[in-house]
Amino acid sequence: MSRTPGILASWRRAPSLCVQKGSQSARHTCHPEVLLGNCLPVYGANPLTVIRPWAEGLDQVVIHVGALSLKESQELAQHAAEIGADGIAVIAPFFLKPWTKDILINFLKEVAAAAPALPFYYYHIPALTGVKIRAEELLDGIQDKIPTFQGLKFSDTDLLDFGQCVDQNRQQQFAFLFGVDEQLLSALVMGATGAVGSTYNYLGRKTNQMLEAFERKDLSLALNYQFCIQRFINFVVKLGFGVSQTKAIMTLVSGIPMGPPRLPLQKASREFTDSAEAKLKSLDFLSFTDLKDGSLEASS
Ligand SMILES: CC(=O)N[C@@H]([C@@H](O)[C@H](O)[C@H](O)CO)[C@@H](O)CC(=O)C(=O)O
């Protein structure tokens, strides 16, 4: 795999809230419950062909089929159905933006209709799309318009909006999947039923420990794990953290070459990777022998 596979992420529905079990390396994400192919189509690379090899052997695969053009999004949705995906997810189109809830719903409805048998997830990520329609508003009556609507991936720090999504839809059995890894514990308290995020590809074990502590109602321990995760994320954010840096860390931890990012992204610097590696080790995310001997078993 020389090109980016997007970001692999996983979740499991409530009551067990989880990212990849048993390991924190990308290589060991071969058995997550769900793989989300989070990539927009780019010229010459159909995300579905990239996702297919990753999807083999997984229990569930939800494929992101959002695109700037409705037609392209519909074609991707149809292809996702043809290759046996378990669901589709869609972000808001972000070049020509929908400016009201109804317009956004109409766009999503047309995409969902192209794969009428597949559960449909709205992927709310306003920082990247610039579409700031509140998720809580969007969810109001959404199943009347999109009968396959199954849930939401919520990648925003607005916990008021997130909490109200949960609170106003308690009867609906929706999946509420949180996407801000450094705030997951807060979202769990609000009622998140799962998590999808980039750092679970390499901070999975610590995150699972946090989830287990939360399920045991040991909030103090869960908070310790969340703080530890925050220490790492805070550290890399200060260095400049994005998709390229995620690829670099995933390569470092898994040993799987993720390849260079495409322009306009720039490859992560050697200094970044060295600093991230040192930080992972100092916070006990990796043991000192993990990377040297090729063993991917991370320390607890
Ligand atoms: C803005 C962003 O990239 N958010 C990430 C988080 O996992 C994020 O990397 C993490 O919380 C660290 O800030 C995910 O929610 C989104 C994501 O992984 C994706 O769409 O590929």
Automatic annotation (TrEMBL):
Pathway linked to the protein: Amino-sugar metabolism; N-acetylneuraminate degradation
Protein name: N-acetylneuraminate lyase
Family according to the record: Belongs to the DapA family. NanA subfamily.
PANTHER family: DIHYDRODIPICOLINATE SYNTHASE, N-ACETYLNEURAMINATE LYASE
Gene transcribed to yield this protein: NPL
Signal peptide extent: none
Domain of life, per lineage: Eukaryota
Subunit details: Homotetramer.
